[in-house]
Amino acid sequence: ILLFLAFSVITGIIAGAIPAWILSAFKPVNILKNLSTHKLFGNISLYKSLIVFQYSLSLIVIIFLSSSSRQFSFMGSADPGFRRENVLIIPLENFKPGVLINEIKRISGVENVAAVSETFGGRSSGAITAKFDKKSDRAANLDYYYSDSGLIATLGLQLIAGNNFSSTSGHEEEHVLVNMKAVQALGLPDNYAAIGKEIWLDDSTRLIIDGVVNDFYHQGVGIGLRPVAIRMNANQYNYLNI
User: Fold this and answer.
1) What is the pLDDT of residue 6?
2) Are strands 175-179 and 205-213 parallel, antiparallel or unpaired?
3) DSSP secondary-structure letter at 8?
4) How far apart are CA 193 and CA 163, in angstroms?
């Protein structure tokens, strides 16, 4: 409210001050004789000043609209790094994902199903600080999601190094997948060096990196590539990607 109020006041002052300053330079006799040829800035008349201002403003608007159109066109056609076509997203609405996934997989035409905490292209489930050592000063801020082992196949992510989540592991919540940006943020020399490494989240949760996936625009092309961590936790799943 204060920002809009300040904007209104400043705009009002500018809108009133500039015409007042220009009109204060006018001589009434000359104005009444020929307003259009009155000199404003040196040898430039009011008529010419308005023409220049009009064309300058039109040029600025054309450049802005052209740039915006090209930018939105690029954002709409750019590859986000994950599959968007032919993927149906449905909310779980407190249904048990395991039972529902098994039933959906029986439907003809369904290739893969993945349970996720949030859908890609929007917001993440949150952000968290990751370290290799609790005492280390170097930390990386990671956006994170919760998902099961079906995420890679369903959304067409590429496994660059390591392995996908193991559905037979008894401690799924201790494992994590990261993207290449996260590997860089953690200071590792390459993607393969991250496999099997232990990281600490907020100095309290120990995780083992199982695999590294390709970078993808999880919050949309307009946000840019960011470090991402993907964990398993059945209690955090809110959607199914089918």
Assistant:
1) 92
2) parallel
3) H
4) 13
> Is the pTM higher than 0.70?
no
Best CA proximity match to 88, nearest among 114, 106, 108, 124:
114
Q: What are the beta bridge partners of residue 169?
A: none
Cα separation, 229 vs 173, in Å, equals: 12
> What pLDDT was estimated at residue 39?
57
* DSSP secondary structure letter of residue 199: E
pLDDT of residue 132: 79
Over range 119-142, report the average pLDDT: 81
Q: For 18-41, b where at least 16 C-beta lie within 10 A, e where not — what string?
A: eeeeeeeeeeeeeeeeeeeebeee
CA distance 148 to 112: 12
Separation CA 40–CA 81 (nearest Å): 57
pLDDT exceeds cutoff 50 at 4: yes
| Whole-angstrom distance, CA of residue 181 vs CA of residue 124 | 16
CA 146 to chain CA centroid, Å, is: 18
Which residues, other chains included, contact 28 with Cβ-Cβ below 8 Å and sequence gap of 6+?
none
What's the pLDDT tens digit per position in 26-82? 666 665 666 555 555 556 666 777 788 888 989 999 999 999 899 888 887 888 888
| Of the candidates 129, 131, 101, the residue with the CA atom closest to the CA atom of residue 116 | 101
